[in-house]
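Hi Y.,

Following your request, here is the sequence exactly as I used it, all 175 residues.
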Amino acid sequence: MELQTPRLVLRSFREDDVDAMAELFANPDFMRFSLGIYTERKKTVDFIEKVMGWDRAGIPSAFAVTLRGENAIVGYCGFHHHPEVPGEVEIGYRLNPDYWNRGLITEAARAVRDHAFADLKLPRVISLVHPENIPSRRVAEKNGMKVENEITFRGFPTLVYAMNREQWLANRAAS
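Below is the corresponding structure, written out as tokens. Let me know if you'd prefer a different format.
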């Protein structure tokens, strides 16, 4: 599976992505507002296997984010499924800090949102964001999402940003 934007290619993860992702997952800035960096390669392998497993099962999953014309992975963006929020599909994202402040992850998140509603016909998507993570909050807001709730997610206060298909359709009609 592949999605394209003016500057990005979002593609399904492959087994040979482990090295690139292990480097990103070991970066403290990339992993800010998470449970910490991945010091063990096995955690990266587990992440990629989980995402590839969702793909094989036909479940919406995360994409590796690359710049058009380049093969290097600069982050990920896509769908995540968490037992802590059953029945919800999250649009989650992380970007290599070297590429921050260029609107790239917003561009990726919009493509994933549009794919969710236009192609997959999902009824609703959420994004889970730590209240102090202002850049991620901005991405969710630029993606048309609104704060719906605050929960404790994996031990941390977390804002639940949400958007449903009807809101997405109304926003598209208004533009």
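Residues 77 and 93 are 4 Å apart (CA to CA).

Thanks again,
Q.
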